[in-house]
Specification:
The protein folds into 3 domains: 173 residues, FAD/NAD(P)-binding domain; 186 residues, FAD/NAD(P)-binding domain; 72 residues, Alpha-Beta Plaits (2-Layer Sandwich). It has a 7-stranded mixed β-sheet with strand order 5-4-14-15-16-13-17. It has a 6-stranded mixed β-sheet with strand order 7-2-1-11-20-19. The protein has a 3-stranded antiparallel β-sheet with strand order 8-9-10, with no helix packed on it. It is an alpha+beta fold and 511 residues long. The longest helix has 27 residues. It binds flavin-adenine dinucleotide (FAD). Flavin-adenine dinucleotide binds next to helix 1, strand 2, strand 13 and helix 9.
């Protein structure tokens, strides 16, 4: 054990070796360094992991960069493809489709945001579909991709990207990374938890083998069961199923056929939605649904009938309840991953919430007694993140114009005030929310508002200070420049091949 004084955390115990556990181990072993606490991770092959979670958000690149991970290696080792956004099919009306891109639409003209000009021109029938003004969307539609320039030639050329990958390979990759930085992996099943009688802090966990593992700080990455945070500490769960009622899913991979576009697809179904996530060697598919509106058998049949290729594994059923722990940090236990909460996979937010949990833990890394102010601050910030993700996910549901009972009920449900205010501000004047703690920024909200046919009643009056002809030529200038830039990019699959070759090249050099 390393000597860091009496008050310092000397031993961290992570319970769980899914994506959450290994991301936590990798980041803590990297950031806390050699002189930091001992880190032990307990996982149980007998219990296994949830085994889904393939689509990510661009922020994962910051996480990997922080760890010094080479992207070419990561892509090669996790069978990753590029993701420029999510295509939503049939979410507004049946037959509609729009992409929520990892990038902007247009650029401000003078002091006024682009979408006000677009709304004005659209009202006069003089604008093309909103997505035509987004470089990330045009590239995705052409199945093109190139790395974004460090400094884009114009604001409308700014975009980012994420990965679609095999999350279990990502966890295995991070396990190797963490082991190389001193994390000790312990195979075993936790069967008992020891607490301090006075403070209620967790002092140790006991494995089925009888081995007892002591710690100062415990990170609960045990998945939905919340072994420490709930089963032991009874922290409480804020149940959000009134807001996000989908509670089951079937997942099944299938053979991949057509050229692989750099995007995830979500198609609305009668009582939920289906995902399609292309990896290098297979398509990930799943049907997320609410069991009050469709039977398991019908949900499974819908999924299997809509596969694009032959299934390559048995379908797996998953059960969940949307919501989060009342406190993500309770006493000396921090819940990261599914043990902390789950808001359904519509916008691929879970891995990102894991990342936020880890980064906030590093920023507020405690001493042994876990000062109440640090714990409160952590919970405040994480609550905001969860609330804002919840509102953004709900937005997709409440703005639908479909006719099935599930979708009618989604429109009529009670909204949290925080969501009503955002929708109202956009509807009245085209205003979009912007905040510090929260994943989805204005470009994302705009994509869904407009993609699902909500247009503002009035736009910024300053757009009228520009002559109608000038407005039209500005929009046309942006659209043609975007078309040209998207067309110049290479094919997505060619990009993956180049990256793969770069990685095998660097491996043989190393040898
Ligand atoms: P798990 O993977 O469940 O890992 C739990 C770990 O705890 C395991 O190692 C297990 O062995 C261990 N454990 C449990 N109990 C014990 C015990 N008693 N003793 C010892 N070890 C124990 N996220 C995304 O970001 N993108 C997506 O596209 C996405 N799609 C999803 C689709 C569905 C249908 C679902 C349900 C989730 C999806 N997610 C997605 C979420 C994502 O799967 C999880 O956030 C991610 O896998 C992290 O899971 P975890 O590590 O918290 O839990």
């Amino acid at each position: 054990m390393k000597d860091r004084g009496d008050r310092a955390i000397r031993e961290i115990v992570i319970v769980g070796g899914g994506t959450a556990g290994w991301m936590t181990a990798a980041a803590l072993s990297h950031r806390l360094g050699n002189s930091g606490p001992d880190i032990r991770l307990i996982e149980s092959a007998e219990i296994g992991t949830v085994g889904v979670g393939e689509a990510t958000l661009p922020q994962i690149r910051d996480f990997n960069r922080m760890l010094g991970i080479d992207e070419a290696e990561l892509m090669a080792r996790t069978s990753a493809t590029i993701k420029l956004g999510i295509e939503f099919c049939d979410w507004g009306r049946e037959g509609d489709s729009y992409i929520h891109p990892f990038g902007v639409h247009g650029e401000p003209i003078g002091p006024v945001d682009f979408h006000h000009y677009w709304v004005r021109q659209k009202g006069e029938g003089k604008a093309e579909e909103f997505g035509r003004y987004s470089l990330a969307i045009e590239a995705a539609r052409l199945h093109n991709f190139s790395l974004p320039p460090d400094v884009p030639a114009s604001l409308f050329e700014a975009y980012s990207y994420a990965f679609q990958f095999d999350a279990s390979l990502y966890a295995a990759f991070l396990a190797e990374y963490s082991a190389a930085r001193g994390t000790e992996r312990i195979e075993g099943k936790v069967v008992a938890v020891g607490r301090d009688g006075e403070t209620g802090f967790i002092r140790s966990v006991t494995l089925a083998s009888g081995e007892q593992i002591a710690g100062d700080l415990f990170v609960d990455c045990s998945g939905f069961r919340g072994l420490l945070i709930e089963q032991e500490l009874a922290t409480g769960f804020a149940d959000w199923s009134a807001y996000l009622p989908c509670n089951r899913a079937f997942a099944v991979p299938c053979e991949i056929g057509d050229p692989v576009g750099p995007f995830t697809r979500s198609t609305a179904r009668s009582a939920g939605w289906q995902w399609r996530i292309p990896l290098q060697h297979r398509l990930g598919n799943g049907h997320v649904y609410c069991d009050r509106y469709i039977s398991d058998q019908d949900a499974l049949d819908d999924l299997m009938e809509n596969l694009e290729g032959e299934p390559i594994a048995e379908p797996k059923q998953l059960f969940f309840k949307t919501g989060k722990r009342e406190k993500l940090w309770n006493r000396n236990c921090v819940a990261i991953g599914l043990s902390g909460g789950f808001l359904e996979p519509l916008e691929s937010t879970s891995i990102d919430l894991i990342q936020s949990g880890i980064l906030n833990l590093i920023a507020l890394f405690p001493e042994k007694q876990c000062a109440a102010s640090d714990v409160e601050e952590y919970n405040r910030v994480m609550d905001l993140e969860y609330d804002r993700v919840r509102d953004f996910l709900m937005l997709h549901y409440v703005l639908n114009q479909r006719d099935e009972p599930f979708w009618r009920d989604m429109r009529e449900m009670v909204w949290p005030d925080s969501l009503s205010e955002k929708v109202e501000a956009f509807k009245r004047r085209g205003l979009v929310p912007q905040y510090d703690h929260g994943l989805f920024q204005p470009a994302s909200w705009l994509s869904v508002f407009i993609g699902q046919n909500l247009l503002p009643e009035t736009c910024d009056p300053r757009v009228d200070s520009m002559a109608a002809g000038d407005r039209a030529s500005e929009l046309e200038r942006i659209r043609t420049a975007i078309d040209a830039s998207a067309g110049r990019m290479g094919k997505h699959l060619a990009f993956i091949e180049t990256y793969r070759a770069r990685f095998s090249g660097s491996r043989s050099d190393a040898r």
